[in-house]
User: What shape does this take?
Amino acid sequence: MTVIETPTRITTPSVVDGVGASATRPDGVPKVDGSFIYSSDEYHDGSLWGVTLRSPHPRARILAIDTSQAEGIDGVRCVLTHRDVPGSKTYGMKVYDEPVLAFDEVRYQGEPVAVVAASHPEIARRACELIVVDYEELVPNTDPEMSLTGRVDGLFGGGLARHVRIRHGDVGAARALADVVVEGRYEMGTQDPAFLGPESGLAVPLGDGGVELYVSCQNLHLDQQQVADCLGLPLDKVRLVLSGVGGAFGGKEDLNVHIHACMLALRTGRPVRMVYSREESFFGHVHRHPAIADIELGATRDGRLLFTKVRLVLDGGAYTSTSQVVIANGCYFAAGAYDVANVEIDGFATYTNNPPCGAMRGFGAVQSCYAIESAMDRLAAALEMHPLELRMRNAIGEGDMLPTGQPVDGPAPVQEILAYLRDLPLPAGVDHGTADMRARPGGVGNVTRGEGIRRGVGYALGMKAIGFSGGMDDTCTARVTVWIRDGEPVAEVYCAGPELGQGVVTLEAQIARTELGVRTVELRDKDTDIAESGASSASRQSWMTAGAVAGACGLVRDEILARGARALGRPAGELTLDGPEIRDPAGHPLVPVAEVLGPEAVSHAFTYRHRPTEPVDDERGQGNAHVAFAYAAHRAVVDVDVELGLVKVVEMATAQDVGKAMNPAGVEGQIEGGTVQGLGLAVMEELQITDGRVRNPSFTDYLIPTMLDVPPMPMKIFEFPHPDSPYGLNGVGEPPNLSSTPAILNALRDATGLELPRAPVRPSDLITEPPDGRAEPE
Amino acid sequence: MRVNVTVNGVAHSVDHVWALESLLDFLRERVGLRGTKNACEQGECGSCSVYVDGVLVCSCLVAAVQVEGRSVVTVEGLDSGGGMHPVQQAFLDAGAVQCGFCTPGMVVAAHCLLADNPDPDDLTVREELSGNLCRCTGYQKILDAVHLAAERTGAAP
Assistant: This one.
């Protein structure tokens, strides 16, 4: 294996904590000492508290709303309903269909109906209890299969949000040639983003009739547009400032407190804080679409894939959010990271009265990767071939054609990724008779000494697009300013790309250090006063922000050198910028930057665009839709107690190509975090929904992995530079979330011999043997 | 009612505390120390971890009136010199912080763990910190940070 060195545009090799270094976070000190301000910490003198009243019913007609009792409580400043929404009554990321406050009908349990501002949150909550909403309950539509008919009364589009068709080659002809055909249905439950920092914000009314909103979100400008539309205000009267974001994972792409807090602030003329409780948070953001996938694979006897046929249904719940792009993304990669010539994919996103779903990390590709990777193991079993061997025989490579007709360009080192997992030694077996109980299934429950424990090993491979696909004109703007302070150049970077925890602020500072050689970089607060940066989603923000910041740095550097050239009477092309000095080609200092700039600042903005893409066509789903692709794979090792259905994930090994590890520690952190979210989806995390009602909206009942649930994660990071990205980097955040879940499912199948057609796997799914001395249950 | 409490070495006397007000809300809204975070209100996530008279607690599960006459230490008070405690520095250096919302509670819990056990093995760290949820990091770098802090403080023989 050769790891190719990345070509970079580093002009100052002496730079410390530049691109490629594991530089520490610029927000790290306040985050460890407790002084970092999250949106739930925002405070303003004289502020009121806003609280939301939500529908208890998944579907009901609203006959009347009486707020008079609530308004009469001491300390309540106002109670607002849909009648008080000044502008558009609805909002949404793609389609304005979600009511700011429900009118006529509620379509999911937890839909906002009214908001209250009061002097204390407890007073506001009690006021909410006194709002009388006269509901006529209706039978909720909760079966996505019914919605596929497109004829369900009471649902948008009769229940069908989008049908994506992809047709490539001739599946019928290929089926006739196949030696082995396998079919399977794979289901996935609803995952919650479960970020720790709840939805929250502070709205401050301004004297000119406008409003300023400090909020945690994933896209300041898209949010600004929706807020302004619903407030009936021009954009320049609505200013958004990014507050500290306590994680998002796609769950903060859609609006939460935004419009409500602004309405209350504008109505009362007072600043208003809103903070969701954990229970409310489960109703206040979108979830990962639950999925049903039917897959048929055909292959030759020697394991060459001949065709892939997929039917994928994702239930988007009550409102559109991003369902159209989630189903598209699911379909684009439903055939996996494999070279297969004949493909039929039909993907459907549905509406129901279930909780709304949106673009959680990996959006759609997580569901389809789980399905295809499960099917690949079934095919391997039918062929009596090692699952890794089957994957290596069919792995996609550079130049191969995707089912959408786009040739794979850029590095596609899937063989290298799989070879790492093949060659990595397996972890030692555990002697459960003597091992620490914490290393066994059931842990400190101490429920086994090794009896009934079986080990399994599973593999999975994932692929997805990086950045926005399908012809979107996607831009990111940054401004970089350099001035002299105490004789030293200081750079300020200003870019609206939201920092969710992923570390884009660290990259901004690293890039400025690399490009300008400066030691001191200051990051300006992120707000809507600068042009847009797009969303921190689709694993795009590092790529886009890096392009914008590096571009702006380049313009600043060129101007400083041009000024130096004038002062020195030498061509600018002979000069280099190295922090405080302008140097000649041999590296000798010629003139201090301080002398060239004097008291003036040099400031430039740059707008970065990735290469253009195009939409796929409606009939056959063909088109060059994608900017770039990223690949990762996992090998999971599990121990299963087949008597009690308990699982211990022993190890999660992974390999991923990241193009260029801009910040290696940050890249590792993304891969580890994504792997563990996939682990949660494999064995523990499911929002349990019955008849449209969420039964476990708490961290007591919705379990995310703890430190004790997480195994060691050996990892190989490949750096095959991407040809047309800044520094050769590639998106990193989502790929580890794809293959983690099916690797564990495949390991559980390997351990138990069960089909396990549903994720997450529940203990009852895993029990293969009755306890000693007891009859098999009938 | 009135609550008299020492927080990070400073005496506070606060009137009009609600009977059912949590220590977490009291610290955040009355004392103005917002480093302690609220993420679940049920003692499941550990984001609100503080010391009460040297005992690690979830402050969301303690009523404010219960700390009458006691001493509370929060993330803001871990280093008596007002700087960074070695545990905090280790979290920063190990890359154990992403969104950081769990970090204050995690740091307090790790501080408590190392005070009791200066050189814990991996499984002990995992068990002792299993009451502190993190959604971003996958915990590996938090594990690294605890070991780094243990190594630096040199408390281990």
Remarks:
- Chain B is about 30% helix and 15% strand.
- Chain B touches chain A through 54 residues (CB under 8 Å).
